[in-house]
Design goal:
The protein is an alpha/beta fold. Among the domains are: 139 residues, Roll (Diaminopimelate Epimerase, Chain A, domain 1); 63 residues, no CATH class. It is 55% helix and 11% strand. It has a 5-stranded mixed sheet with strand order 1-2-3-4-5, sandwiched between helices. Strand 1, helix 2 and strand 2 form a beta-alpha-beta unit. Helix 1 runs antiparallel to helix 7 and helix 7 crosses helix 8.
Length: 295
Amino acid sequence: MGGSPWRRSATRGWFAQLLLWLALFGMSLAAAAQDVLAVPALSARITDQTQTLSQDTLVQLDTKLRAFEARKGVQLAVLMVRSTAPEPIEQYALRVAEQWKLGRQRVDDGALLLVAKEDRAVRIEVGYGIEGALSDVLAHRIIDEQIKPRFRSGDFDGGITAGVEQMMRVIDGEELPAPRGRSRESSNDPGQIWPVVIVVAAALGGVLRRMFGRVGGAVIAGGVLGGLTWFVAGAVTTAALAGLAGFAVTLLGLGMGGLMGGMSGRHRGSGWSEGDGGFRGGGGGFGGGGASGRW
């Protein structure tokens, strides 16, 4: 009378999926109602909105980065914010990189070191032109070995300085020391999934926006990405966050259309500049390369 066990199990499975999709839809609508963190104007190599870094560190880093640009042509910048909520740090970093356009036009030799202090999250975003030198693996090692240990002890000045210096060495062609035994924590870092999620969301979002409009495409992208993540990872929380990422990336136009817009915008300049006493990007392009971590 109550039906076979298989039918009851299948019914529960479909019901659980329905609940998840409804939850993702509700969370997506809630995220749409929130204001995302604005990207600050680029006017300096180091932008610290948390007032954490000392004046000596700001001056020393600016001097090193200025000399590195003059010698190598590569443009690096540092941004510290309190939190990137409601976006994951990967999504916000890509928005910053697209707006700042670090690096030279058609060379795309820029990189961003982003720290979200209250989120305890850090991201290295790498331009197309230096992904061969500063690969995702090396960026992850710099975060794990140079930045996170110092951040955990409260040494933000030392962590930022060590991270920037190691990024410059790697771009210069120096090899990192052989990696020490990876800890269980670093090998299971949940932050590793987010670069993949953002790249998939960017590719999927651009297509869905054109087919279903901004809001419709965002809802569909969030649902599809959340469902796929749940299928792969088997974790509802991770799937829900992935759904939110897909929704926000599509809604904000950071899919393929947004990336193409960023590439076309590169024709406005022909190199980085410090005119009018400020610091500007020169039109470099980014595609989500880099690494993230949490301390």
